[in-house]
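Before a colleague's protein record goes any further, I have to sign it off. Thanks in advance; the entry in question is below:
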Amino acid sequence: MRTGRPVNGGGNRASIIAAARQEFAAHGYRGATLRLIAMRAGVDVALLSHYFGNKDGLFAETLELPEEARRGIAAALSTGPIETRGEQVTRCYLGLWEAPATREQMLTLARSGISNEAASTRLRNLLTGPTGDTAFDGMPAGARAGIALAMAELLGVAIARHLFHIQPIAELEFETLVARTTPSIQRHFGST
């Protein structure tokens, strides 16, 4: 491994973030170490401090979801006919757990959300943050509660499938999972 100044700044940074996402997703915040992350990324451990300051800084960086993911959740919660809102939200949220671009962040949020305040805040914002969007201004408290309950249910399904690998939930085809979960989620939107 090379030490000293970074040679491939953007590439090294991206490699470190990718390695950190894998480690945090597999082991949570407490179980992941900077040394293991550096080994996985193929860089000197000092480079992690150079880019991110410390483990907390690197962890915070790995929790960032693409902006289109946040916009997708907000759109699923606020657009289209109310009769299909449950399916839209179910497909969008559970899709974040399935998509290669966001799977590791979702696993990291869930594994670390109980013991790490940064992860807990990010997870809470993902689940309830969209209701703070201007599209939800004037929404009655009951409707906001329905959204929070729907998102909490979806989190439970995702954890059962991806963290605990509960059978047969873990083996269901994605479309079957969406079809079986949607009626329960739709109930929170006041229409079936």
About this structure: The chain has a mean pLDDT of 85. DSSP finds ten helices and no strands in the chain. Residues 9-62 form a domain with the Arc Repressor Mutant, subunit A fold (CATH 1.10.10.60).
